[in-house]
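Narrative summary of target 7.
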Amino acid sequence: MKTYAASKYANTCLQHRWKTTWYLLPQSFNKAVGTMFLLLAVSLSSSLAISAGTGTENTGTVAGARLSDGVVGLVPLYAAGLGIAAAGTGWGLGLAYRFRDMRGAAIMQLTLFIALFLTEAQTPLTVMTGWLHTVARINPFTNVLRLARAGFLGEITWDKIWGGVLALVVLSALTLWFARRGLDQLEN
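Modeled conformation, tokenized:
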């Protein structure tokens, strides 16, 4: 009986927490952006702590991955990860502000999956033919993947990473603008 009462009380507390948290969504774009950067900082620090504490970098080394510029090679990898997270956050917030239900989450996941699937992530661009080659060549996420791989494929130079940096800046700016417009419409 005590176990049932405790689980029922915990379930009631979780439901109440969800209902009260829902109304605490950011009321201004500055708070939304601040929340986004806080989440990004937490994810970066936790991923750095996990990789330093558990030795996951040794797994990549055993599998054949080598950082050509040492630890500096991780900088473009983490920059690409944070940039994709920022663009995905802006896209997800914009869809959530417009749909106001779970349909936005499905659309966000599907569109990001398609955008990443239509890159050279699975097959090198030199091997692709037809329409897939054309789409992968002009897809901005292809440049983001090149940025992420830069630390593993030789010396990091501006010639190798400028396309990925530009793609991340433009994608993040557009998706955050999309989120801002959705928030403005939500407040009206």
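The CA atoms of residues 67 and 137 lie 26 Å apart.
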